[in-house]
Design a protein that fits this description.
The complex is a heterotrimer.
Chain A lengths: L18 H11 L6 H15 L4 E2 L5 H10 L22 E5 L7 H10 L5 E5 H6 L21 E3 L6 H17 L12 H9 L2 H8 L7
Helix pairs in contact in A: 2-6, 3-6
Chain B lengths: L8 H23 L24 E3 L15 H5 L5 E9 L6 E11 L8 H5 L6 E3 L13 E3 L6
Antiparallel strand pairs in B: 1-4, 2-3, 3-5
Chain C lengths: L4 H14 L2 H38 L15 H10 L11 H19 L16 H22 L3 H31 L5 H6 L6 H4 L1 H18 L11 H4 L9 H25 L13 H9 L2 H20 L7 H29 L4
Classes of the chains: A alpha/beta, B alpha+beta, C mainly alpha.
Chain lengths: ~220, ~150, ~350
């Protein structure tokens, strides 16, 4: 069964920008055709996943205040079901990177992202997370969080309005609805690969990430 | 400097209970007030931003597709972080033989704009202004690099 | 009042007539177990949805409204997502205890859930020391919390679990004292009997002053017992990320989450049973017409109305007050609630001895 245009309540398909990305993704995913049963189950699971994306409470600067405004009474994000912000990365689904990421914060952010449980998503909120923003010429700012994490949705603005952030979350909902879950992103790591991942030297990795270490 | 009142055991207990009940009365009243939530996607038809809201930079064109930009580059120099990049060329006017600067492409990076409005203030001919559209979220960063002028073909 | 034991004895006779008694009992137990799990899940879903809507109403906003009509399908979306989330294995965690901890918490929750009388004749576990069993079963949850914190291999989780453990064992005492106050008023510990004896008036009216004080103490202590409301320091975000369940993801975390809300319901249901009359309708002695009308409303409607009212009260408390620090929590318990509870118990004993109750 083909997954057609992802529907969001109260929004028309053509109201959204960047439909080409979703159409290209759909074409690639459906190139081999889908099983009817798996397709139906996928739709159900994706409906569940897209309506229950729990954000991780991560905010560095001003965009964090807009995130708080989005969660407050006027532009209530609870209407979508996203008001349960979990503090532990293991329980969160989406990390809204709001605010400037400095070189000192980047390894911490990467570590938090690694600790999140799959399936996980990243939304880069605000100019600073998209490209460095006002601090693009600074010596200590990461010029866009996509140098550190794989970003799914970019929400520009300085800071973006709460409605613009809600629009960004609706874009993410569309992307989740289109994904192929069973057999797609829900893939199992093979035993050999798992053993290799467990055995590799974590200390070697840690040295590169630790910017406070003295350089000899 | 006034000191905090020291409560004994029972007076502290009753004072505490009184303050707790005051708090509960406040939230009880709040439970029955009309909710102030603006339902965003449902109210898109009637949602109107205030006029000075800076949503995105646009270059207004008239009905024939002309814009007022003369490619002077003042906006590019005024922008603090290099969001605007102007490609221009020198064009020779065939009748008079004079050379004039003409705009080829006006690059605008929505991802790094900080909406400070210095470019709009610097423009001598009001060629660019901010519009109130705020729905810009996209999946790929390249889609945020826009070209603002429309070339007539 | 419709007596549910008619239905249960009919089923039992039907089964024993076609198969040996042992097999009939076994099949009944399996069916009851399945019904219990289903009821547990349904109650959890209703509780979480109620929490989100009530919290939003107190904070002047709408809760979930987009998913399904008036947001009713929101919880099902959450359940689907929780089921398919990755369960992360912590490398140096104590694997057996780490995996066991959520199940112990859920186990104690289910055991306590099985004690509540929902309608006349509709209770699963009905010992003659029901109250005692309930308190013992709810204490098992503390072990689960401590195991969760200990086996996560995370010192902050351990601190959170220790704080939670200290809080829970302290407030067990107050819960016990307030329940004991009612047990003194009625000389039985069996839940169905406690409800039967409220036929001519709920205990909160019969036991006037000491019963009201016991009710308030029970609400506060029950709240703290299940780590809810102003006493949720172990789960506070600015304190310890997520306390004892920081390192849990996916369905294990889902079990903790669900157990918290069902424990809230259990605390409210016990309050409704002991203080507010369980499934007994409101009878005003002397107004026979009124009593007849009240009798038409079935027992489980009364029960759920009372339990949900107490849940709403507890949610009101949660969304009004800021969190208490751990030293404030323990001060409240040991310096205020226990002495007042003991004095109250003495007061109730005097009322019973001298006959100063209705």
């Amino acid at each position: 069964m083909e997954i057609k245009e992802p529907k969001i309540k109260s929004m028309r398909y053509n109201d959204f920008k960047d439909n080409e990305y979703l159409e290209a993704m759909l074409k690639e995913l459906n190139a081999n055709g889908t099983n009817v049963v798996v397709g139906c189950l996928d739709e159900l699971i994706n409906w569940g996943r897209s309506n229950s994306l729990w954000p991780f409470t991560f905010a560095t600067s001003c965009c964090g205040i807009e995130f708080m405004a989005m969660c407050a009474a006027r532009y209530d994000v609870a209407r979508f079901g996203f008001e349960i912000t979990r503090n532990s990365p293991r329980q969160a689904d989406v990390i809204l990177v709001s605010g400037t990421i400095t070189n000192k914060m980047a390894p911490v952010l990467k570590r938090l992202y690694d600790q999140m449980a799959d399936p996980k998503y990243v939304i880069a909120v605000g100019g600073c997370a998209v490209s460095g923003g006002p601090f693009k010429k600074s010596y200590h700012v990461v010029k866009g969080v996509d140098k550190v994490l794989p970003v799914d949705v970019y929400v520009p603005g300085c800071p973006p309005r709460p409605e613009a952030m809600l629009y960004g979350m609706m874009q993410l909902q569309r992307k989740v609805k289109v994904e192929k879950f069973l057999g797609g992103i829900n893939h199992q790591v093979s035993k050999k690969e798992y053993a290799r991942l467990m055995e590799r030297d974590l200390n070697a990795e840690r040295d590169e990430l630790n910017v406070e270490q003295e350089k000899d | 400097m006034s000191e905090a009142k020291e409560y004994g055991y029972f007076s502290g207990l009753f004072h505490g209970i009184k303050t707790l009940l005051t708090g509960m009365r406040v939230t009880f009243k709040e439970f029955f007030t009309k909710k102030v939530t603006e339902e965003y996607p449902e109210n898109r038809a009637v949602l109107k931003m205030f006029d000075r809201f800076r949503g995105t930079l646009v270059m207004p064109h008239d009905e024939e597709g002309n814009n007022k930009c003369i490619a002077c580059g003042l906006c590019q120099m005024a922008c603090p972080n290099g969001t605007i990049r102007i490609e221009s060329e020198m064009v020779e006017d065939p009748e008079t033989g004079k050379k004039k600067r003409r705009l080829v492409r006006y690059h605008y990076d929505l991802g790094s704009c900080m909406f400070c409005q210095l470019c709009v203030n610097a423009c001598p001919h009001d060629a660019i202004r901010f519009s109130t559209e705020f729905e810009h979220a996209v999946f790929e960063r390249e889609k945020l690099q826009e070209i603002l002028n429309i070339t007539k073909e | 009042m419709f007596d549910f034991s008619i239905v249960t004895s009919w089923i039992h006779e039907l089964l024993t007539s076609v198969m040996p008694a042992g097999l009939a009992v076994f099949i009944e137990c399996v069916v009851i177990g399945v019904c219990l799990m289903l009821a547990y899940a349904v109650i959890a879903i209703i509780m979480i949805f109620m929490e989100r809507k009530v919290c939003a109403a107190f904070q002047c906003r709408l809760g979930p409204v987009r998913v399904g009509p008036w947001g009713t399908l929101q919880l099902f979306a959450d359940v689907f997502k929780m089921l398919i989330k990755e369960i992360i294995t912590i490398r140096h965690a104590d694997k057996f205890l780490y995996n066991l901890a959520p199940y112990i918490v859920v186990l104690s929750s289910i055991l306590a859930f099985a004690c509540i009388p929902v309608n006349k004749g509709m209770e699963i576990l009905d010992f003659n020391v029901g109250v005692f069993f309930l308190m013992a079963a709810s204490s098992i949850g503390i072990v689960g919390v401590l195991l969760a914190g200990w086996s996560s291999n995370n010192k902050y989780s351990l601190i959170g679990a220790m704080r939670s453990g200290a809080q829970m064992i302290s407030y067990e005492l107050s819960v016990g004292l307030s329940i004991l106050t009612i047990v003194v008023l009625t000389d039985t510990m069996q839940f169905s009997e406690i409800v039967e004896r409220q036929a001519d008036g709920w205990f909160i009216f019969k036991g006037h002053v000491p019963a009201v004080i016991a009710f308030i103490i029970y609400l506060i202590a029950g709240n703290a017992e299940v780590n809810r409301g102003p006493f949720d320091l172990p789960e506070a975000e600015s304190e310890l990320t997520a306390g004892y369940h920081t390192e849990y993801s996916g369905m294990h975390f889902g079990l903790f989450y669900v157990a918290e809300f069902v424990n809230l319901f259990i605390v409210s249901a016990i309050a409704a049973t002991i203080f507010l009359g369980g499934w007994m309708p409101l009878h005003i002695p002397g107004l026979d017409g009124f009593n007849q009308v009240m009798d038409y409303i079935p027992g489980f409607v009364w029960f759920f109305a009372k339990a949900l009212f107490v849940v709403w009260l507890l949610m009101w408390i949660k969304w009004t007050f800021p969190r208490l620090r751990i030293d404030q929590i323990l001060t409240l318990e040991w310096k205020y609630l226990v002495p007042i509870g003991l004095v109250n118990l003495l007061l109730m004993v005097m009322c019973v001895v001298f006959g100063w109750h209705f």
